[in-house]
Design brief:
Length: 387
């Protein structure tokens, strides 16, 4: 075989992928191999001084090349394809389908770090750290930069699905609470960078309350912080807030096992969040589903999940979610929900209906049709009303 010519094994891979309507070239395969994303074919030695030979095309090479071909496209950064590959490998395999192999986890870690370095939150953290101890002018600059960056990506509010459902059932407008307003988010950024004392207890309580963390209001936070200031409660280690704000370092030091676990937690919480959110869309409410929602409410985590989870995430959003799910808080919630699911797995079993999931879907479809009919009738009536 001429030097630089494609190997017969790689040509066979190209043919196998072409049969799946995946167009790759032998040079692409070699490029992916040099980047550490594609393994080499396993070779068998021919004996002393006689070299080695590839007996059969390695299925791992074929499936790895196939998933790369699905996620790579012209102009797309290869690291985004790695993240898409990692997300796909964590999903359940379709019956009869070949399981997607895992990408090299070193490449996954590199891709997550690359995404995080470009996020607004990381840029804010860097600006905040640079401002620490640099005087009043630096603090003013932090407020200005934080305001400018956050204005480009405002936080959204979230309505509890139970409230949305109740409003829709009686034909009432849905009240969607505002997300944290501009100044509240800036206060939190400044507290992370310069310390809570720079912001003050009242402003910090408003900022924390605006995020609805753990179901606590600004008044709740104000009472707790006031008790600390009066010496009635143990002092707060605000250094933990600064440490938790840095998502980059935990990813860099995470082991392969921890990255895989974070993916399990992220994909699991996405499922639980979806079940919670679908309650707003008239999904039949079974005891098992209600118990899962109650567990999330018990942890006060729906607002956080609503910020973190996307049901159809981009690779960048997946990377941010993966980093967040390295946190013990999210791991603990996932475990609690899995325990609840094990205790009552009949999510789609309507009490008294022996048809199981089929009856569940039939009921849901019927209710959605009824709601659609009602909505159209109300719209027609409103158009017919005299001006």
């Amino acid at each position: 075989m001429a030097r630089g010519a494609p190997s017969p094994a790689d040509l066979q891979v190209v043919r196998e992928l072409a049969a799946r309507r995946l167009m790759v070239t032998a040079s692409q395969l070699e490029s992916w191999r040099r980047a550490g994303l594609l393994p080499r074919h396993r070779r068998r030695g021919l004996g002393r001084g006689r070299g080695s030979v590839v007996d059969v095309v390695d299925p791992l090479v074929v499936e790895s090349a196939a998933v790369l071909a699905r996620h790579l496209r012209q102009g797309r950064d290869r690291r985004l394809a790695v993240l898409g590959w990692f997300a796909e490998a964590g999903g359940a395999a379709q019956p009869g389908a070949v399981r997607v192999p895992e990408p090299p986890l070193a490449a996954v870690r590199e891709a997550v770090v690359w995404v995080l370095r470009g996020t607004v939150s990381h840029r804010l953290l860097q600006v905040a750290r640079d401002a620490a101890g640099a005087g009043e002018e630096a603090a003013d600059a932090l407020y200005e930069v934080a305001g400018r960056l956050l204005a480009a990506r405002p936080y959204r509010g979230s309505a509890n699905p139970a409230l949305v459902r109740a409003a829709l059932e009686v034909d009432r407008d849905v009240d969607v609470p505002d997300g944290p307003v501009f100044k509240e988010v800036v206060h939190l950024v400044v507290a992370i960078g310069l310390g809570a004392q720079e912001v003050g207890g009242d402003a910090l309580a408003e900022a924390l309350g605006a995020f609805a963390l753990f179901g606590l209001t600004a008044e709740d936070w104000g009472q707790m912080l006031g008790a600390v200031e009066r010496g009635e409660s143990p002092p707060v280690d605000w250094g933990l807030l600064q440490q938790r704000a840095d998502m980059l370092e935990p990813v860099q030091r995470a082991s392969d096992e921890q990255l895989l676990r974070a993916r399990t937690v992220l994909l699991g919480l996405r499922m639980f969040y979806g079940l919670y959110a679908m309650h707003a869309l008239f999904m039949p409410d079974t005891p098992a589903l209600a118990a899962l929602r109650a567990k999330i409410d018990e942890w006060g985590m729906f607002p956080l999940l609503d910020h973190v989870i996307a049901l159809s995430p981009s690779p960048r959003h997946f990377a941010e979610g993966l980093a967040i799910c390295l946190e013990p808080l999210f791991d603990g919630l996932y475990e609690a929900l899995m325990e609840q699911l094990a205790a009552d797995p009949a999510l789609f079993q309507i009490p008294g209906d022996e048809t199981g999931a089929a009856g569940f879907m039939e009921t849901w479809t019927r209710v959605l049709r009824e709601q659609t009919t009602r909505a159209r009738k109300r719209a027609d009536e409103s158009r017919e009303e005299p001006l």
